[in-house]
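Hey team,

Filing this mostly as a record. A colleague (T.K.) asked me to run one chain through the structure pipeline before their review meeting, and I want the input and output archived in the tracker in case anyone asks later how it was produced. No errors, nothing strange. Just documentation.

Input sequence:
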Amino acid sequence: MKNKTSVVPREGEAQPSRCPDNSAFKQQRLPAWKPQLTIGSVLSSFFLTGAFCLTVGVCLVLSANSVREVQIDYSDKCSNCSKLRENSSNWNKECHCSINFTLKEDILGDVFMYYGLQNFYQNHRRYVKSRSDAQLLGRNVNIQRSYCAPFSTYRNGTPMAPCGAIANSMFNDTIDLFYNYNSSMIQVPLLKTGNSWWTDKNVKFRNPESSNLSAAFAGTARPPYWQKPAYLLDEEDERNNGYVNDDFIIWMRVSAFATFRNLYRRLRRVRRFAEGLPAGNYTFRISYNFPVTKFKGRKHVILSTVVWSGGSNPFLGIAYLVSGTAATLAGFVITAIHLKLRKKKTYFQKQ
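Output structure:
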């Protein structure tokens, strides 16, 4: 075994230094701002923060309360259709119901129609992953290698288009709005396109490249719970078919909560409805297709306006109010503690 020898520096030789370089950075001599916290600066920061949050919170709450909204639960009002849909063998049978309601005041401005679901959990991990983004981009992919199973192929090997549990459970009720004017029914014009996000419509979803959309989907089949193939989702507008259908795109953006609403239609402000929805009697005509009884869910249809802060959701305003109140109370507590300690300091100095 070899002996280890250490190198001993000779006399007169300088040993290598372990000290860092004599620079401003390595010697920590860079200019820095060192705030001196005083009672005045601390209290002013707490009170100013509280005043700011309270002001913003009040504005947001008042803005949310100014939203005009009509919400109707039609789960029980269409009970006959609900019972029909619980039997999967009746998937090809149509069922319609009508719901009457009255607007006591005009709803001016842009009006949006939403459908709402309650107790429908879209945030389950397997449900969220059950899709093929490559297929939704119009690519020719092997979906058996995706996370779409068991909604990927049929027993005969025919692939589903689109595949996955999200697409298969797409909301497919059809809702039309009618205005009762002088004993006549006037259909309210609604826009079914332009409702999805621009990035979803133009980046994340694309149809397969083909001159004929039905030919592009040849060799595929619709999901089991769909009544139409993807290329016939909108028979009135050919550009709103396939993977770029607005209703389909909006549904594919899953919700984080069990109770949610999705944008369904927008009011087309023309003729009698140029200023919005006038007061009067209205009727929702609903083609009932989406069953909710088995998972104890509820369905709603909502008419709502929007303001600069969004829709009728006071959560952000309440959060600002709570934060502002906490900051203000903290400021008063610090003030009380400071005054108490200052009195004790003055007392001991006199002694």
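Quick notes for T.K.: The first strand starts at residue 69 and ends at 73. The mean pLDDT is 89.
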